[in-house]
Design brief:
Layout lengths: L26 H17 L20 H7 L4 H8 L8 H10 L4 H10 L16 H9 L6 E5 L4 E4 L1 H7 L12 H7 L1 H6 E2 L3 H16 L5 H13 L1 H7 L12 E5 L3 E11 L5 E8 L5 H13 L8
Helix pairs in contact: 2-3, 2-4, 4-5, 11-12
Length: 309
């Protein structure tokens, strides 16, 4: 059987003879992805990115190691992408490559399609709330503390039980509405979200950092990261570990002055149509947290002040 690269009109130099496409991606797209990356890289001038032109460059445009450094990935991994082999790049890696290669919005859209990913949605207006997540937020309001945030963990909207447990975040200015900022800069916030052990608290810190890593190519993310590095040595140390993952919330114990301790598991629902996500705090099975949440809901319904943990 003819190897797919043999049938390509302009095969990419350096492709391994035993290459096979990643499952779930088409052979033609893998070839085109490598070709697209190579052509965009060689079309850029070093001086366009503030790099010295140099006199010893053997090829036009940027070197692979320069693109890899700006995209926060290894040179070896970037090389195998240009050579149409290796694992499928993640969405966060594609975002880094798009920024490094200064792709236009149309070129960025094309890059994601070639790599087998849905192109990222544009940034929502400041007051935007994903309608599907908002419907679910309202549907669970009577039993489950929940809120909607953007992918940087800025709180967008909270339901009444969440407000009663944690106070208002959505209307706070600047970083004060950001949960990652609160976790690394506010001793009070950590005292509210009590971890069962130091190990669990460290796991929560790493989860926040790794989740933020996935969105670091956004300008707003870069500003948040810079400010967090200055404000928290713990964040700076964890950031330099360069872990990347989506948000995971371990079990939390929250104390409320009216109803006592609540043991809560966190469930995260991400919208396929926006950059927002819904975080729901569900009672841990086998505890009396459900009863305590019902009591808190009655306090809210009776109009009593329950908004302070």
């Amino acid at each position: 059987m003819t190897h797919p690269l043999d049938a390509a009109r302009d095969p990419i130099p350096g492709t391994a003879p035993d290459w096979r496409p990643t499952p779930g991606t088409r052979t033609a797209d893998r070839i085109q992805l490598g070709d697209f990356l190579r052509r965009r890289r060689t079309a850029l001038r070093p001086e366009d990115l503030g790099l010295a032109p140099g006199t010893r460059r053997r090829t036009p445009g940027l070197r692979r190691d320069e693109v890899a450094a700006m995209a926060n990935m290894s040179t070896a991994y970037y090389e195998i992408l240009e050579q149409a082999r290796g694992p499928q790049p993640s969405a966060s890696m594609l975002a880094g490559i798009a920024t490094a290669l200064r792709l236009t919005p149309d070129e960025r859209h094309h890059l994601y399609l070639l790599a087998g990913h849905a192109p990222p949605t544009p940034a929502e207006p400041a007051d935007y709330v994903d309608p599907g997540l908002a419907y679910t937020l309202d549907a669970v309001a009577a039993t489950t503390p929940a809120f909607i945030s953007d992918d940087l963990s800025n709180v967008v909207v909270q339901n009444p039980l969440n407000l009663a447990l944690f106070g208002s975040f959505a209307d706070r200015p600047g970083h004060e509405k950001n949960l990652t900022w609160q976790w690394f800069t506010s001793a009070r916030w950590r005292s509210v979200l009590r971890s069962p052990s130091p190990q669990e608290e460290e796991a929560t810190s790493l989860s926040y950092v790794a989740d933020l890593r996935a969105t670091v190519t956004q300008p707003a993310a870069a500003t948040l990261v810079s400010d967090l590095r200055e404000a928290s040595t713990e964040f700076a140390e964890m950031w330099d570990r360069h872990r990347v993952s989506t948000l995971h919330c371990p079990t939390k114990t929250v104390f409320h002055r009216h109803v006592g301790h609540l043991d809560l598991d966190c469930v995260v629902l991400a919208s396929p149509l926006s950059r927002q996500r819904l975080l729901m705090l569900q009672p841990v099975p086998g505890t009396d947290t459900s009863d305590r949440l019902r009591r808190l809901q009655l306090l809210i319904s009776d109009g009593q002040s329950a908004a302070t943990p």
